[in-house]
Amino acid sequence: MKNTENPVVSIHYTLTNKAGEKLDSSIGAEPLSYLHGAGNIIPGLENALSDVSVGDKLTVTIEAADAYGERNEEQIQTVSKEMFQGIDNITVGMQFQADSSNGPAIVTIKKVEGDNITIDGNHPLAGEQLTFDVEVMDIRPATETEMEHGHIHGEHVHGEDCNHD
Ligand code: ZN
Predict the structure, then answer these.
(1) Residue 102 phi, psi (nearest 5)
(2) Which of 7, 10, 52, 159 could form a disulfide with 33 if both were Cys (CB 3.0 to 4.6 A apart)?
(3) 41 Cβ partners below 8 Å, 6+ apart?
(4) How far is the CA of 160 from the centre of ligand 1 (A)?
């Protein structure tokens, strides 16, 4: 079938940055499935997949603004080590999941100076131009519940009783 309104689209993808370094790939694992039109994936990729059919292969280059956004220097903050209670050895490059006003965010440790820890709340791929090599593996209609919830209910994700927003 074709990608019509709110279908569930499954893709295999390989993600590379501007330097041509491979950052991520679904090859060898399960394809990525998502609810089209619900903002579950980055806007540039979702737009590029608006009119595809099963078997289509495409290469999409996406500027930062349509991927994980531009870097925002205000997201870099220095906090006290006490913020990281229970973690003995904080080192540069470690990543934590933190709650932000926009939902869960990844925070990366940038600098450790005594009790002062510099954290970067930008998405690790913010400011990066990204290229996706995509193959469309499957397109199926979404169930009513999936459309209501705005995301897919894969076998391993959650069942009919899922009660999140
Ligand atoms: Zn759900």
Answers:
(1) -100, 25
(2) 10
(3) 32, 34
(4) 8
- Whether residue 26 is contained in a domain is answered as yes
> Quick check: pTM over 0.85?
no
Tell me, yes or no, whether 162 lies in a domain.
no
| Ligand 1 geometric centre to CA of 154 (Å) | 9
CATH code of 51's domain: 3.10.50.40
In a domain, 164, yes or no: no
Q: 23 with 55, same domain?
A: yes
Segments forming the whole domain that contains residue 89: 73-120
Based on its alpha-carbon atoms, the radius of gyration of the chain, rounded to whole angstroms, reads 19
Q: How many distinct structural domains can be found in the chain?
A: 2
Which helix H or strand E contains 113, and what residues bound it? Answer: strand 103-113
Q: Give per-residue pLDDT as tens, 47-105.
A: 999 989 999 999 999 999 999 999 999 999 999 998 888 888 899 999 988 877 777 78
Q: Compute, in angstroms, the gap from residue 90 CA to the centroid of ligand 1.
A: 35
**Digit-coded pLDDT (tens) for 95-133:** 988 877 777 788 999 999 999 999 999 998 999 999 999
